[in-house]
Design goal:
The protein is an alpha+beta fold. It folds into two domains: about 260 residues, LCP protein (Aminopeptidase); about 30 residues, no CATH class. Helices cover about 35% and strands about 15% of the residues. Strands 6-1-2-3-9 form a five-stranded mixed β-sheet, with helices on both faces. A two-stranded antiparallel ribbon has the order 4-5. A hairpin with a 4-residue loop joins strand 10 and strand 11. Helix 3 packs antiparallel against helix 6. It is globular.
Length: about 375
């Protein structure tokens, strides 16, 4: 290369480098305006609760560009992942509290248990989402924990993978436990997995809150930057109508935490304390694998992680910590199908008969029983 060409090329190269640096500073620099006023109303103690939902909606029709675009999916689905993201601007604090999908709960307007241990007349919280969507799930979580749920965001298989792809450039390899997550399909399988884990859904809950915490830590630096705003806009476009959060509300939450000097490394994680049991649910005439809430421990968890009472000693249950097992956990909740019906006794001996045989016999006699609710079809996730 001649000296003349070199002297011409160097200023151009320098100008390009300067432009790249300026563009980089612009993109990662702070946004030019603060968040606009929103309708988000924190509690009197300065807290906001956002429900994060992972749903198992199956595709309807052919799947196109799986994991790269939203495909049409079933309207009815289960909430495999349920996490309350609690934000308190006054403390400041962020806590992620997971609720096991098979936890038995009272569902407003749906169940009518005689007491808080009348588990046969309760419902799995995962079915709540299938019955009434986000609204009913939010009411149920509020009823269970005694807190206000301000907003919610749900991810299906497509939007989860698309969101993970979007954030992967900034997250890099995300380590959760002994697993390194590097790509969308692997991350989805990991988030959904419970079979084969030592403590089933309790371990899945632990993985889920650890996953969300890891994403927060790796992407927190983007908050308040123009690049962060671009990513947020794309994220909300991916989620679409599966959230009622607005961009300005997210800015308000992030900016409020940043002003306090909050670090995502302070984020707490917890799983509601519960114990697995077989329970015959009267609504379905079926015995299902469920989780019984350990109310004494959950009350302390609510105080500590959702009401920010720092002096309360509560289990985070991020490992299989020992706790005092209440007497009702050891009771038998498996009952003969017929005994949970609220109609007259059957006119014959049902010993040894399964449900279908009983129904056939009743049909022969011309006295069929009233139909029970059908269990919302479950992927078993």
């Amino acid at each position: 290369m001649s000296r003349h060409r070199l002297s011409f090329a160097l200023p151009i190269a320098a100008a390009i480098i300067v432009l790249i640096v300026i563009a980089a500073f612009y993109v990662v620099g702070p946004r030019s305006r603060s968040a606009a006023p929103t309708a988000l109303e924190p509690t009197p103690t300065g807290s906001v609760n956002i429900l994060i939902i992972g749903k198992d909606a199956r595709a309807v029709g052919p799947v196109v560009n799986e994991g790269r675009q939203r495909n049409r999916r079933q309207e009815q689905s289960h909430s495999d992942i349920i996490i309350v993201c609690h934000v308190n601007f006054a403390v400041p604090a962020v806590n992620l509290v997971a609720i096991p999908r098979d936890l038995l709960v009272e569902v407003p307007g749906i169940t009518a248990a005689a007491s808080n241990t009348d588990f046969t007349n309760m419902e799995k919280i995962t079915h709540t989402y299938a019955i009434g969507g986000e609204n009913l799930l939010r009411k149920t979580v509020s009823n269970l924990l005694g807190i206000t749920i301000h907003r919610s965001v749900a991810f299906d298989f497509d939007s989860f993978r698309m969101a993970f792809d979007l954030l992967r450039l900034f997250v890099g390899t995300l380590r959760v436990g002994d697993v390194n997550l590097t790509e969308r399909d692997q991350a989805l399988m990991f988030a959904r997995k419970r079979k084969g884990l030592e403590f089933d859904d309790a371990d899945r809950c632990r993985n889920a809150v650890t996953f969300v915490r890891g994403i927060m830590i790796r992407t927190w630096w983007l908050a308040g930057t123009r690049l962060g705003d671009m990513i947020l806009g794309r994220m909300l476009a991916i989620v679409g109508t599966d959230t009622d959060l607005t961009p300005d509300e997210i800015h308000e939450i992030a900016d409020g935490l940043r002003r306090t000097g909050f670090s995502p490394a302070w984020t707490g994680t917890a799983v509601l304390v519960s114990e697995g049991a077989e329970v015959t649910l009267a609504r379905y005439d079926q015995t299902l694998s469920c989780y019984l809430p350990v109310y004494r421990e959950i009350e302390k968890q609510v105080d500590r992680f959702l009401l920010d009472k720092k002096d309360v000693q509560a289990l985070d249950f991020m490992s299989q910590e020992p706790f005092r097992v209440p007497g009702y956990v050891g009771s038998n909740y498996v009952v003969p199908v017929d005994s949970v019906d609220s109609v007259a006794p059957l006119p014959f001996d049902t010993t040894g008969m399964d449900t279908q045989v009983v129904r056939t016999r009743l049909k022969e006699l011309g006295t069929p029983r009233p139909a029970k609710e059908s269990v919302p079809k479950d992927s078993g996730g």
